[in-house]
């Protein structure tokens, strides 16, 4: 039996085949879910069409810059028109201006702070609000976060502060949406070599550091994030909401 047969989902954040969103989308699809995908801007349209196009004719592929309320509304309107309902939502989107991920946190500009929080944290609130009316049979919303939200990770800077906001937003959304049987959780992934990750100064050292210090002495694999995504989307996680689940080879438990 497949865990997600009959479920409809929307996936924000596939940029290419290395994207964490793609690993989770593939796992959701393998378990029987029908998926819609969004992409930001024409630049990524072809990539997403090439990947998601393999899922068959029920797949919707739609543009969405998550800082634009009208684009978010258009996505959910088209999801409603095609499927009539929604069960799953993956938020796998983050951005901060490059210079804010290189220097000191102290030098974060007002504008970089605003952009990082708008794209990486507020957008979860905006998409959850738009998804709620379609999640008439309950639902599971999953967002991607990182440990830099709770401990200082050099160079992660304003993104760590935005991830703290994302995780707190997850808890408040879980409370607001609980009576509608909509669960909201974060996966806190260890470092994965993606487009977004390569924007963080010293990212290769992070991979080496995890390999040397995590209890499992290795980095997390994208398929393992996919498997956790399936678990959180499935009835196996029916009583889990508002949580941050660490999928990081155990790194989060270490004191030194
Ligand atoms: P990725 O493949 O580069 O995915 C990031 C996605 O966010 C891209 O599709 C990107 O599109 C999109 N995005 C940025 N600004 C957007 C906007 N305004 N509207 C819509 N989409 C926008 O990198 P990833 O590593 O898979 O990142 C996915 C999530 O996992 C992020 O939340 C990230 O913080 C989190 N995460 C990553 C790691 C890691 O080590 N890779 C670890 C823990 C958590 P563009 O390419 O057009 O900007």
State the domain count. 1
Any idea what the shape is?
A: globular
Low-confidence sequence ranges: none
Q: How many β strands by DSSP?
A: 7
Q: How many angstroms separate the termini?
A: 43 Å
Radius of gyration: 17 Å
CATH architecture: 3-Layer(aba) Sandwich
Bound heterogens, unique: NADP nicotinamide-adenine-dinucleotide phosphate
Q: What percentage of residues falls in helices of 4 or more residues?
A: 40-55%
CATH class: Alpha Beta
The share of residues in extended strands comes to 5-15%
- Secondary structure tally, helices: 7
- Write down the secondary-structure element order: EHEHEHEHEHEHHE
Largest sheet: 7 strands, parallel
Describe this structure as you would to a colleague:
The chain has helices at residues 20-30, 42-52, 69-83, 110-131, 157-177, 203-213, 222-233, and strands at residues 8-12, 34-39, 60-63, 88-91, 139-145, 182-189, 244-247. It is 40% helix and 15% strand. The mean pLDDT is 97. β4 (88-91), α4 (110-131) and β5 form a beta-alpha-beta unit. The chain has one domain (8-248): 3-Layer(aba) Sandwich (Rossmann fold). Strands 3-2-1-4-5-6-7 form a seven-stranded parallel sheet, sandwiched between helices. By secondary structure, the chain is of the alpha/beta class. The chain has seven helices and seven strands, in the order βαβαβαβαβαβααβ. The N and C termini lie far apart (43 Å). NADP nicotinamide-adenine-dinucleotide phosphate binds at residues 13-15, 19-21, 40-41, 44, 64-67, 92-95, 119, 144-146, 189, 191-192, 194-197.
């Amino acid at each position: 039996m497949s865990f997600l047969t009959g479920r409809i989902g929307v996936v924000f954040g596939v940029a290419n085949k290395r994207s964490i969103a793609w690993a989770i989308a593939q796992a959701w699809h393998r378990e029987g879910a029908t998926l819609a995908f969004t992409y930001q801007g024409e630049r990524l349209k072809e990539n997403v069409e090439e990947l998601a196009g393999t899922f068959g004719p029920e797949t919707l592929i739609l543009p969405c810059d998550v800082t634009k309320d009208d684009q978010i509304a258009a996505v959910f309107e088209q999801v409603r028109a095609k499927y009539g309902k929604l069960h799953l939502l993956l938020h796998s989107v983050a951005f901060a201006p490059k210079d804010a991920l290189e220097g000191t946190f102290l030098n974060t500009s007002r504008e970089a702070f605003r952009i990082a929080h708008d794209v990486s944290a507020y957008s979860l609130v905006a998409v959850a609000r738009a998804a709620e009316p379609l999640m008439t049979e309950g639902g599971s919303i999953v967002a991607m976060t990182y440990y830099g939200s709770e401990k200082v990770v050099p160079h992660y800077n304003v993104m760590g502060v935005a991830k703290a906001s994302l995780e707190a937003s997850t808890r408040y959304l879980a409370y607001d949406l609980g009576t509608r049987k909509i669960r909201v959780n974060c996966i806190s992934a260890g470092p994965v070599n993606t487009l977004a990750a390569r924007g963080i100064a010293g990212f290769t050292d992070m991979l080496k550091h995890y390999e040397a210090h995590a209890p499992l002495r290795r980095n997390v694999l994208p398929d393992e994030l996919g498997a956790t995504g399936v678990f959180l989307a499935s009835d196996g996680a029916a009583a889990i909401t508002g949580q941050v689940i660490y999928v990081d080879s155990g790194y989060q438990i270490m004191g030194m």
